[in-house]
Amino acid sequence: MQIDAPTGCISDSFPKTTSTADVIPGRPLPLSPNSSHPMSAAAARAARRLLSCRLQATTTRLLHASASQGAAREASESFIHPAAVVHPDASIGQGVSIGPFCTVGPSARIGDACQLHAGSHVVGDTELGEGCVVQTGAILGADIPGQTIIGENNVIGHYAVVGVKCQDLKYKTGDECFLHIGRNNEIREYCSIHRSSKSCDCTVIGDNNLIMGSCHIAHDCKIGKHNIFANNTLFAGHVVVEDCTHTAGAVVVHQFCHIGSYSFLGGGSVVTQDVPRYTMVAGDRAELRGLNLEGLRRNGFSDQEVRRLRKAYQKVFMPTVTSESSFEDRLSALEREIELSESPAVSCMVKSIRMSFDQGRRGICKFRTWSSS
What we know:
alpha/beta, 31 strands, ten-stranded parallel β-sheet, lipid a biosynthesis, Lipid_A_LpxA, flat, twelve-stranded mixed β-sheet
């Protein structure tokens, strides 16, 4: 009994073998599979090609699916080096890499895709946002009451110390103290950033700041956004730095000073009083040296805005030696001048100056009196 192949199978394309029962007298014999008839050979080759293409396509799909699953699995899995010490109560996100000789404390929370390079440490109640990089030797947090919160995509440089106890003698052992750092900051090697000195306060650093090597930000400082602090910039306690400021190297800022937005502090300056917005200071016991014109240009201020700021600065800070008007008189006269007072930038500068003379503030940096000759 002969069993036919299922309909639609590739074997249907091949000629069947011939038995003696299939021979009809007076007609030629059917060709066998090994026959050299051109139509039979072409059909066999076409079938083989079709089968090969289908097999290749299926294999490719399987390989791609396997690779995608493998990549997703690797991305979701965290790597912890056997030489690292990670407390079982620590919270570790997906895709985290922890190198050798790292330590992670029981209250630490490490966000997804963070990298802890060899010999870095996260201790105390410390939260590290997604995508942060902690380089060799850095220490985040401390085993004291309070909390350190570090946002997403921050880079903590080699041997930086972030979120440790302040160096203020007013701090009482056992008090809670806090540090909150925003996103996208680069904190370079050997920097030190301290927590607050009191439970009712907090050291705060905003977003997108570049803090170069060996800088110090003391307890209770408030740092804004888009600032650049060159190497060895030192901020004492309770300093307020607004947005888009720039310091050159080896700058020292006295406690409780305010540094206005878009200002520039020259290299080696010792700043003991407030720096108004948009201005530039320099010197030991820093003095006002004009507007930060380059900073204004880089930050997109229009020519008209810069001209108005220059005119306002000259009216307030560049009186002649023969002028009998007081500083307060000149500031009031500027506020009454409609053309300048309607400029948002000029209004911000005047407000910054006024606030520096509020109770508890330190006033503004000294400025020179100019000769009329």
